């Protein structure tokens, strides 16, 4: 699976990094690629469905894809105990898109709750992507 598909899908605002022309290090790319592959195996999510989400197509989203979101966000330290780890997200993604942008996105998205942790993680993903896109246009 390509690194950029994984990042675009579930590393919250990594889409902003690409739009802003910010490059991730090879180490960061490898980490997300490895974790994404682990999460595909652990959740049984369809690679095609994950790729589709990365392109903005949510038509293939099922519970496994939602759990993929939870898995990857958890492995990155962004999601734990059913909620966003704000400090980790700020520390990690604030450097990429700017601290004020990430705080504004967190203020709009972090209170979302789904029917379970997988659903919550996916709702958070959708919100972060939507807010990121609207703040960069």
UniProtKB/TrEMBL annotation:
It comes from the Eukaryota. Its main location: secreted. One of its GO terms (biological process) is sensory perception of smell. The keyword Amino-acid biosynthesis does not apply. GO terms for cellular component: extracellular space. It is found in: Secreted. Residues 1-18 form the signal peptide. Belongs to the PBP/GOBP family. PANTHER family: GEO07291P1-RELATED, ODORANT BINDING PROTEIN-RELATED. This is Odorant-binding protein 56d.
């Amino acid at each position: 699976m390509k690194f950029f598909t994984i990042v675009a899908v579930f590393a919250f605002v990594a889409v902003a990094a690409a739009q802003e022309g910010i490059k991730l290090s090879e180490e960061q790319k490898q980490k997300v690629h490895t974790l994404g592959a682990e999460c595909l195996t652990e959740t049984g999510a369809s690679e095609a469905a994950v790729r589709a989400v990365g392109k903005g197509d949510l038509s293939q989203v099922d519970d496994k894809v939602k759990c993929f979101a939870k898995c990857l966000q958890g492995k990155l330290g962004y999601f734990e105990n059913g909620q966003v780890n704000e400090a980790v997200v700020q520390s990690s993604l604030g450097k990429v898109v700017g601290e004020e942008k990430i705080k504004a996105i967190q203020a709009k998205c972090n209170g979302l709750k789904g029917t379970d942790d997988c659903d919550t993680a996916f709702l958070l993903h959708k919100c972060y992507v939507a807010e990121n896109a609207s703040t960069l246009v």
